[in-house]
Specification:
Layout lengths: L1 E5 L5 E4 L5 H7 L17 E6 L2 E3 L9 H5 L2 E3 L3 E3 L3 E4 L14 E12 L4 E8 L10 E5 L7 E4 L9 E7 L5 H8 L6 E8 L12 E6 L3 H13 L8 E7 L8 H5 L8 E7 L13 E2 L2 H9 L7 E5 L2 H13 L7 E2 L5
Length: 338
């Protein structure tokens, strides 16, 4: 174990040689900044004051030559080779309301198809680990370089079950292995929970969930968390889901299982490419999911607590819409995945 010192503070923590500085900090309750956790967003950049590190991904797109010249490193990719001192902007907001990430083994117990390219995978942990609705984990696959980040779709259970609704990425080595090679009874390494877009149970506002693709998982976890928490019994939740064509739409059946569907929980779906409706069976809305949310809720949108997840283009469109509608930033929650 190596000692990591945060400069200009009294904070120190230990980091194993096979762990990253960012993840070890969070395990120790030290709030270093992060977001995507896989080297793409750059939120976890820190300055290496002394010591040496090796990178899990030297070519990570979030690190520029200018960063390297200033001795900046990515906390989520950097493993120490000895004691180190770093400069980092610490904040308790990165601690996930007390759910410290852990490394553990998990066994695949069941899976089912949700759509033509989204499958639900159910794992059982060897030791139960608590997570908050909306958080995610890192999954490690055999013969795949680096972990992949996926959100849980259920809520924390005493039996240690973690469920994921994962979209197959064409040509993706991670989802290719998961869909085609991992079988019921197989065991994987996981690391979590992570993520800052978790359910804010102390908010008095009604809730909006906006999702597309595999963004279904975290917002479904949010909805299930609302239904399970007696303190949120008076909250209404609008669930907006968008897809390209009819066969991409999913989630309504899961939302219908929650008590209060149609009274507290409302499902809204939309497709953006009606030409994919080759059987001409779609009778719902056509357009983009962020426009539908604005159409349904109008000027009341800033009165809601908002959670969203989905592909980058959708996430960017949602962000622009929320800014234009002057939704306070503190009411908007999402985790950037790339």
């Amino acid at each position: 174990m190596f000692k990591i010192t945060v400069a200009d503070s009294e904070r120190q923590f230990e980091c194993a040689p096979d762990d990253t500085i960012m993840r070890a900090a969070l395990r120790a309750g030290v709030g270093v900044p992060y977001e995507c956790n896989v080297g793409s967003c750059g939120t976890c950049k820190i300055e290496l004051v002394s010591g040496e590190v090796v990178s899990n991904w030297p070519e990570a797109p979030a690190l520029t030559e200018r960063d390297r010249g200033r001795k900046r490193i990515l906390g989520c990719q950097s493993r120490p080779t000895g004691d180190c001192t770093v400069k980092a902007r610490l904040s308790d907001q990165y601690l996930g309301s007390g759910c410290r990430p852990q490394q553990f083994k998990a066994t695949l117990t069941a899976c089912r198809d949700v759509t033509h390219d989204i499958r639900e995978f159910r794992f059982r942990l060897d030791v139960p680990v608590h997570f908050l609705p909306g958080q995610y984990a890192l999954l490690y696959f055999p013969d795949v370089n680096g972990p992949r980040a996926y959100s849980m779709s259920n809520i924390s259970q005493d039996d240690g079950s973690w469920h994921f609704q994962i979209k197959r990425v064409p040509g993706g080595s991670g989802t290719g292995t998961l869909f085609d090679k991992i079988r019921t009874g197989d065991t994987l390494m996981m690391d979590g929970p992570y993520g800052l877009a978790y359910l804010r149970t102390d908010s008095p506002r009604d809730i909006v969930c906006i999702a597309g693709g595999s963004g279904l998982a975290p917002v479904m976890s949010i909805a299930r968390g609302v239904a399970a928490d007696p303190s949120m019994a008076s909250r209404k939740l609008h669930f907006f889901y968008g897809g390209r064509g009819p066969r991409d739409i999913c989630g309504e059946d899961m939302l219908r299982e929650l008590p209060g569907f149609g009274e507290r929980f409302f499902f809204h779906s939309i497709i953006s490419m009606p030409e994919l409706d080759t059987e001409r069976q779609w009778a719902g809305r056509i357009g983009f999911v962020h426009d539908m949310a604005l159409e349904v809720l109008g000027k009341t949108l800033p009165e809601h607590e908002i959670y969203f997840a989905g592909p980058p283009a959708m996430a960017q469109a949602v962000q622009r819409m929320l800014m234009q509608e002057k939704v306070p930033g503190g009411q908007v929650h999402y985790d950037a995945f790339y």
